[in-house]
């Protein structure tokens, strides 16, 4: 395969994953049908399978693609903020925006609910990404203790749980109170930070 | 149909819903296949359909059955506690136990993630139950303000968001940190209550 063909193949693969993301946002990763995806991508089913060996391979690619976008839009910009509370706040507000920008649900958070009872490679990948995100949050919380912005006896594991809970809460509350969910999450974040301040 | 036949029909229907709940806990309400359910219930597919007009009818019945069990095991006992913080704490600790007792995920919370991108009767029913639960929590929080146990400027809507977030957080954190999720949720609850105390 020459370089141009490789680049074309990569672009097609990317396009398929993006379409698959759109379907998985609405119907979940388990609801991702290759037939529907092929139609959305304007391809044949075998054309889709030429790029992904199996449905599971495609599901894993959608998870990784989601995590890359999350890194680029949430963690990346936040990590350019000064260490301490500015960075931790930036992670959370960008993450709230991420939830808002995915009105049918974040594929990874959706998969967390979808795969809790389904052992296997997809579940393992979801767990892997969530643990990665948690590690980044724990690190950001620890830096707030180092800068003296959060109290010295702060437990970063507990705060990471509390912050993730706000994301999960926003994600779910949006279903039954879409008009107020975002504002409630922002107020809950402010409340949490004041209760933790040094 | 005579009375005995009616009672037998109701018992069979109940048994089918219970089996369906087990399947939906693991695979989601969308993953509920009538074939698999019939096999689990030791019936034919048409036997299942004799009790439920459609798959959607069955899905709605599973949601209502879940909500009845939730009422009986979480809200019911909690409402027998004295109004104020004892009652609110009882709601939350029983709810944490409910999450623990459903290791493959609460069907209603799972459906919240599953149906956020799927409009229709199932989504509407999920929203209906979640709003019902939220109303009960808001009422319990308001009583804590009346008893003077929570600060007079407490916003019950915000506290309900914060409490639901802890449930959602426990539900999701259990996936990637099953050994610590419950203890973290209990500590986060204590932290929240102290930050709100009058």
Describe this structure in words.
2 copies of one chain form a homodimer. Helix content of chain A is 77%, strand content 0%. The first copy, chain A, has 198 residues and is mainly alpha-helical. Chain A has one domain (56-196): Tetracycline Repressor, domain 2 (Orthogonal Bundle), CATH 1.10.357.10. In chain A, helix 1 (3-27) packs across helix 2, helix 6 (107-114) crosses helix 7 (121-146) and helix 7 (121-146) crosses helix 8 (156-176). The model of chain A has no long low-confidence stretch (mean pLDDT 93). Chains A and B meet through helix 1, helix 6, helix 7, helix 8 and helix 9 of A and helix 1, helix 6, helix 7, helix 8 and helix 9 of B.
Which structural traits does this protein have?
mainly alpha, Tetracycline Repressor, domain 2, 77% helix, 198 residues, homodimer
SSE order of chain A: HHHHHHHHH
- Class of secondary structure makeup of chain A: mainly alpha
Main beta sheet strand tally, sense and closure of chain A: none
**How many discrete domains of chain A?**
1
In short:
2 copies of one chain form a homodimer. Chain A is an all-alpha fold and 198 residues long. Chain A has helices spanning 3-27, 34-41, 45-51, 55-79, 85-101, 107-114, 121-146, 156-176, 181-196.
Topology diagram in text:
Two copies of one chain form a homodimer.
Chain A: H1 3-27, H2 34-41, H3 45-51, H4 55-79, H5 85-101, H6 107-114, H7 121-146, H8 156-176, H9 181-196
Helix pairs in contact in A: 1-2, 1-4, 4-5, 4-7, 5-7, 5-8, 5-9, 6-7, 7-8, 8-9
């Amino acid at each position: 395969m020459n370089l141009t063909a490789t680049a074309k193949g990569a672009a097609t693969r990317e396009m398929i994953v993006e379409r698959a993301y759109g379907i998985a946002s609405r119907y979940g990763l388990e609801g991702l049908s290759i037939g529907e995806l092929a139609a959305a991508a304007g391809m044949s089913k075998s054309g889709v399978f030429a790029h992904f060996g199996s449905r599971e391979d495609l599901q894993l690619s959608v998870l990784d693609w989601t995590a890359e976008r999350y890194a680029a839009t949430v963690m990346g910009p936040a990590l350019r903020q000064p260490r301490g509370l500015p960075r931790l706040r930036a992670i959370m507000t960008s993450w709230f925006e991420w939830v808002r920008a995915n009105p049918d649900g974040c594929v990874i958070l959706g998969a967390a609910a979808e795969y809790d009872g389904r052992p296997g490679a997809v579940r393992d990948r979801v767990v892997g990404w969530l643990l990665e995100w948690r590690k980044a949050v724990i690190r950001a919380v620890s830096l707030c203790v180092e800068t003296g912005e959060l109290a010295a006896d702060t437990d970063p594991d507990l705060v990471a749980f509390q912050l993730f809970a706000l994301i999960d809460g926003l994600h779910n509350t949006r279903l039954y109170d879409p008009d107020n969910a975002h504002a409630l999450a922002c107020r809950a974040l402010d409340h949490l930070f004041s209760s933790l301040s040094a």
